[in-house]
Write a structure and sequence with these properties.
- The chain is built from 1 helix and 4 strands.
- Helix content is 40%, strand content 40%.
- By secondary structure, the protein is of the alpha+beta class.
- It is elongated, with a radius of gyration of 20 Å.
- It has a 4-stranded antiparallel sheet, with helices on one face.
Length: 107
Amino acid sequence: LVILSVGLTALAALQITAIKANAFSKRMTAATLIAEATLEQLKDAPYANVQSVAATPVVAANMNFTRQVTVTANSPMANAKTVLVAVRWTEGSQTRTVPFTTILYQP
């Protein structure tokens, strides 16, 4: 009987870990989709219109995120812009970040 109760307790702990991992995966997927969509919009925009954007709140899949776009001109070379899209969210006491970077070039 003791062995059964220890086994069931371990199984319950495993179930809780699996639920937390699934929730994290859902948030990570939503943040990735936000970052990808933002990069695609910036790639389709005229080169001169690609500019930094301050942190703005975004809601996706009923979850709250913050998206920030940082554009560095003439990086890594002339007529190029390095674009960083960072999507952040708070999970418990930790802040998580999904960063995506690309380089746009205007010949």
